[in-house]
Design a protein that fits this description.
This protein is α+β, with helices and mostly antiparallel strands and 150 residues long. The chain has a domain of 101 residues: HIT-like (HIT family, subunit A), CATH 3.30.428.10. It contains three helices and five strands; from the N terminus they run αβββαββα. Strands 1-2-3-5-4 form a five-stranded antiparallel sheet. Strand 1 and strand 2 form a beta hairpin. The longest helix is centred in the middle third of the chain and has 21 residues. It is globular, with a radius of gyration of 15 Å. The N and C termini lie far apart (54 Å). Bound molecules: adenosine monophosphate. Adenosine monophosphate (AMP) binds next to loops.
Length: 150
């Protein structure tokens, strides 16, 4: 066994999700409130795969303020329920990765919320990029299920 790193890496303000929150990079937004933001995963593991993030900076579950976890989980539940309606889902998988050894690739805390159907396996993590129009349609379907579509 190797010795654990005693100094965890710090939050990088220029990570992709920080840029999305600042509007510097585009995304297919699904939902937003004072503390959280939800948008379509660009490489979905299943149709409707959504990411929920806190607006406050945190790298992952190891440094996040518990209040931000609570806010994120409230939004995760909203999105999961909307996915059941919008995608006729039979179940929901929620995933979250911490640090490179834990499978994390983007270092702003995020929860993966993924609609599931019986017998359909998930596509690979960070696999193929989805078509933009398809993601826009999925975001719209979720907004409709949330009752927030224009
Ligand atoms: P992980 O950090 O392991 O949870 O993986 C990062 C996730 O972010 C993957 O599912 C990617 O498909 C997703 N992702 C990366 N860049 C973007 C982006 N610009 N917009 C939406 N999702 C992204």
């Amino acid at each position: 066994m190797t010795t654990a790193n005693p100094t965890p890496a710090s939050y990088d303000n220029d990570n992709i999700f920080a840029k999305i929150l600042r509007g510097e990079l585009p995304c297919h937004k699904v939902y937003e409130d004072d503390a959280t933001f939800a948008f379509m995963d660009i490489m979905p593991r299943a149709d409707g795969h959504t990411l929920v993030i806190p607006k406050n900076p945190s790298r992952n579950m190891l440094d996040v303020d518990p209040k931000d976890i609570a806010a994120v989980m409230e939004t995760v539940q909203k999105i999961a329920r909307a996915q059941m309606t919008a995608f006729g889902a039979e179940g929901i998988t929620i995933q979250q990765f911490n640090e490179p050894a834990g499978g994390q690739v983007v270092f702003h805390l995020h929860m993966h919320v993924i609609p599931r159907h019986d017998g359909i396996k998930l596509k690979p993590h960070t696999g193929d990029m989805a078509d933009g129009d398809l993601l826009a349609g999925h975001a719209q379907a979720l907004k409709k299920a949330l009752g927030t579509s224009e």
